[in-house]
Design a protein that fits this description.
The chain has a five-stranded mixed beta sheet, with helices on both faces. A three-stranded antiparallel beta sheet has the order 10-7-11, sandwiched between helices. Strands 1-2 form a two-stranded antiparallel ribbon. The chain contains twelve helices and twelve strands. It is α/β, with parallel strands linked by helices. It is globular and about 65 Å long. Strand 1 and strand 2 form a beta hairpin. Helix 2 crosses helix 3 and helix 9 crosses helix 12.
């Protein structure tokens, strides 16, 4: 959410091995007591820095619980939709799902025990970033209607940017199944596909939209906000049984997530934040310096709370346009107890 080197960095699974359990202080009768091994939590993610979970293990100077009560095993996915299968089969414990893929997980995969546990980020919040849909600067396409008969790129079918693109097509009288051809591609390779005229339109999400080369060859045709308004773009999800069995560790993990978020968003730490994200993504720091964790970035709730009103509207739009066959009550698929407990432990800013 990359050139060849950057693509390799994102295409491989980002797996962090569990650490050995630390010896507990003191002794019990004859034998030294040992602390329980930290819980291994398998986390699905798509793009750093949109998703901050993969950064938790790299910031021990900020976190308090990683390696003690839990350890993260971060697993990379090309988009949020493939995480549905992984969550259904028990391959991951928590995932960063889009509003669209969460709806599909409930409707198609039958994950009726799925719960939102925290916000990741929102798109289109007033004064903050919104995703753009780009055409080449020299393209004759000037309006959405000009896309008829053309080939468009998406990251994965059913992802948030995919749904927004299809909604925009329908708003302008185009059938997303018959009037255009839509091909899947990973974000890192879309720039070359656009430049080589293999596609005429591509969605640009951060950090890829900040690529100077992409900006030089392209111009926006519309934005995600134009298509569907404000969106609860990505939310962290887990299944109810996992939350219940591991409540304390989940709270600790979310506390660390909020600590990382607050630290990175502090203007005093901007230079360090740029360095951390650049190292994690194998991209030059200059790619991030001007916008990272500023108002030119996505909006992140300081207490980790999702915008359920926006999410409900996102579900409604999908239902209205026929992408959903059922009505989904966002509040019924939410368990904010852990993140609320986590937020109480630390100082937050409104």
């Amino acid at each position: 959410m990359q050139s060849n080197g950057q693509s390799n960095a994102y295409s491989r699974r980002f797996v962090l091995a569990s650490t050995a359990a630390a010896l507990a202080a003191g002794t019990v009768v004859r034998r030294p007591a040992r602390a329980a091994a930290p819980l291994r939590i398998r986390v699905g993610w798509v793009v750093v820095p949109a998703d901050l979970f993969p950064l938790i293990p790299t910031m021990p100077h900020v976190t308090k619980h990683h390696g003690t009560s839990y350890v993260i095993e971060a697993q990379h996915f090309a988009g949020t939709t493939p995480m549905i299968t992984a969550m259904a089969s028990g391959e991951i414990d928590t995932g960063a799902l889009a509003f669209s893929s969460m709806a599909l997980a409930i409707q198609n995969a039958g994950l009726t025990d799925l719960k939102i546990i925290a916000d990741s980020f929102e798109d289109g919040v007033e004064g903050y970033h919104t995703n753009t849909y780009l055409v080449r600067k020299d393209s004759p396409i000037r309006k959405v209607e000009d896309l008829k008969g053309k080939v468009l790129a998406t990251n994965t079918i059913g992802s948030a940017v995919d749904i927004a693109m299809r909604v925009m097509l329908r708003k302008h009288g185009l059938n997303d199944k018959t009037d255009v051809s839509i091909v899947e591609a990973q974000f890192p390779v879309m720039k070359s596909m656009l430049n080589d005229d293999k596609v005429v339109l591509m969605p640009a999400v951060l950090p890829f939209s900040a690529d100077p080369e992409l900006q030089q060859i392209s111009r926006p045709l519309f934005t995600q906000k134009d298509a569907i308004g404000q969106t609860q773009m990505i939310i962290h999800n887990a299944r109810a049984d996992f939350i219940k069995k591991n409540h304390a560790a989940v709270v600790d993990m979310l506390e660390d997530l909020l600590r990382v978020q607050h630290y990175l968003m502090d203007p005093q730490h901007h230079e360090e934040a740029v360095k951390i994200v650049a190292e994690a993504t194998k991209q030059p720091p200059a790619r991030f310096d001007k916008w990272l964790f500023t108002k030119d970035d996505y909006y992140r709730n300081p207490k980790g709370l999702p915008n359920l009103a926006a999410l409900q509207e996102n579900f409604r739009i999908q239902r209205e346009l026929g992408y959903l066959k059922i009505d989904i009550d966002a509040k019924a698929y939410t368990d904010l107890g852990p993140v609320e407990a986590a937020a109480k432990r630390i100082t937050t800013k409104a």
